[in-house]
Amino acid sequence: YKRQYQRRVHGEIMDGQQEQPLQSLFKQADTDNSGTLSYEEVIQAMKAFRPGTSEKEVRDWIAEADLDNDGQINYEEFVNFWKNRTA
Length: 87
Description:
disordered N terminus
């Protein structure tokens, strides 16, 4: 199921239908409903959707996505990151 969901989300991002699947992914990862993704939440999401992800990969992902350098990923940063990755 996870693989199927990942392919569907990636396909929708590539087709430009980004908002709904990205919003769903963000909400799933934002387990404390703070409106931002913490380092811990990113680790948990990566483990769920990409088993075997290293801590270095998570740190690199956060560094690339965290445009305001606050150590958290807000929704705008999350969307921008995925748009840039699939462009």
